[in-house]
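Entry 14. Structure prediction run on the chain below.
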Amino acid sequence: MTQQTVQQIMRKQPITVQCQTPLNEIIQTLVTSQQSQLPVINSNNKLLGMVSLINCQKALLISGYHCDKPVKVNDIMAKEFTFLTTDEELSEVAIKTQKQSENVFPVVNNGKLIAVMKRVDLLVHLQNNLSLCSRA
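Output returned:
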């Protein structure tokens, strides 16, 4: 496998949600962007968490059943998640993330979100390296 880093395949200008975004806006953003997860940031672009379709589904079930107060992203986001840095080698990232269910990994620099890396991009990279091996 060639030594490449997250920086080579990361997606700059990721779609995000702000930390006080209401549930209906989160769902709308997830649906229109066709993503399963989004980074949650504050006004300074500091990464606070990740919100997913599953988080939203659970929130809808609970708030619909209990008729709770309006749900915001802070109420449902995951505060523990895997994040990456630009200089991590993709071979190490592949090992690091193989047992995780997430499909979007935030890329940070000094705690601030700068990009995301999608699992699909990592798979394409791994497949391209495999095809290079078969040519040798």
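Residues 119-135 form the longest helix (17 residues).
Filed with the rest of this week's runs.
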